[in-house]
Amino acid sequence: MIPVFDGHNDFLQRMVEAGPARDALWLKGDGTGHLDLPRIKAGGMIGGFFAIWTPSPEGPNDDAAVAQMENPPFALDLPDPVPATEALPHAMAQAANLLAMERTGTLQICRSAADIREAIAAGRIAAVMHIEGAEPVADLDMLHVWHTMGLRSLGPVWSRPTIYGHGVPFAFPSSPDTGPGLTDAGKALVRECNQLRIMLDLSHLNEKGFDDIAALSDAPLVASHSCAHAISASSRNLTDRQLQVIARSKGLVGLNYATGFLRADGKRQSFAGFDVILAHLDHMLAILGEDGVALGSDYDGALMPLDLSDAGKLQNLTAAMQAHGYSDELVAKIAWKNWVNVLERTWGA
Ligand code: ZN
To answer: How many domains does the chain have?
Structure first.
């Protein structure tokens, strides 16, 4: 079994929805979704980023949006901004659930690379607390509060605009160059994250925001769950130029398994096999090198390929990489070592 460290999941929303059944959901699973402790163990997953994410108020067009994503070309409207006062209760509930998972003794919220090593050695899931879309970070003082609670990774935006910057709308085909760059508050956020050594996540940012962080940040550039735009021309994927910028910073990209970001035709539609996944990995390796490619599943947040349909199937992917001719050392780097190394360089030892 090859260990897997994963760059992005949305499991915490399921924990919140489970209410009093949350511990059972984590410890035993409920047969739905993409991950829980038994499937994490079955798939060899040793750790990963657990995202805190604020939902948009449900729109009348949610089903229509899915239908559009199944039939490219499409360009969805950007969701409306959500104020911090609305986002905070959602975010706190998700953070509270991650803390509750830690209290079961099966998972550890890691604040340093040493914590990650300790958790792995003890057989606990090494979790990174991540915020996807900085709506719950009302200001820099609150960033310090989140840091004290364990936050070690932050994406300034999801799809919605925030006070810090602008995300890409979901669109195919589309360039990621879809709007203005970071606001002044966003630039201050980058500097404060650098000071606190909170990892900045570039996934979801538009291209100008990406370039602003690349110019400002003193940390390796990281996109936790994105794919190659050259293969799937989604607004959410990274152009070769962006991959080169990340490579120059000695940063990393976590491959997203979302079918709509993988498929060359951009369809939100499942598929069997690993050919297109390996094509993305080959492309990213050619630009980022062996130390710059990792995994970022998007489990519990996207429609998955059939052979990676939950965390219990992660060894299908490592086996496909080996069958494709990647060396054991390269598979280990992509599967977990690169994540631990980039976090160590970002956070300090
Ligand atoms: Zn995402």
So the answer is: 1
